Every structure is written in structure tokens, then in C-alpha cells.
Amino acid sequence: MSTDWDKYATPEDTRNRGKITKDNAVIRLLVGDVRKIPDQTVVHTPDLKTPNRAHTDVFGEKNPEVRVKLVRISKIVIPL
After folding, report:
1. Which of 21, 39, 51, 58 sits most deeply, having the most CB atoms within 10 A of its CB?
2. Is the pTM of this model over 0.85?
3. In terms of Cα–Cα distance, which of 50, 49, 47, 56 is closest to 28?
């Protein structure tokens, strides 16, 4: 799962990276909460080609149980 670290990007920056801006919402996930979900790893992976210093990956299978847990710890920052 590709995310942005809020230290380096605003919610608007994140939304604007989408192909069709109006089709993208932005949610907030706390890294500590994500890391409490079994088999999920958070790694800061800046993308130097785009450039996106904020780029961060959440590695691990996103099975239905993990998806429910991610939804439960998320907060909508910019709705659709």
C-alpha cells in the first residue's frame, strides 16, 4: 500500500498526486497503529523519480481481516 508521510506532504499534496484529483479521498493512519496489525510493515521509501520525498510503503498482505483493521484505525481527512 502506497502512502505519504505527513512530515513531508499535506493531505492536499497527497490528493493531488492522483490521476483524477476529485476521485481521491485522503485518510490518515497512525504508523504505530498500522504496525500493531500482524504482518504489516511500514517503510519510508522516497520516490526520487517523481519526486515524492513523502512516499512510504505499507508492506504485507491486505486480506479481508487486515483491511477491516485498517478501516477501523483510519480517519477521513479529505472526503470524496
Report:
1. 58
2. yes
3. 56
Answer yes or no: are the C-beta atoms of 69 and 61 closer than 8 Å. Answer: no
- For cell 512530515, the residue is 7
Distance CA 46, CA 52 (A): 6
pLDDT level of residue 63 (50, 70, 90 thresholds):
very high
Contact 62, 39 (CB under 8 A): no
CA 42, distance to chain mean position in Å, is 10
B/e letters for 4-16, b = 16+ CB within 10 Å, e = fewer, are: bbeeebebeebbe
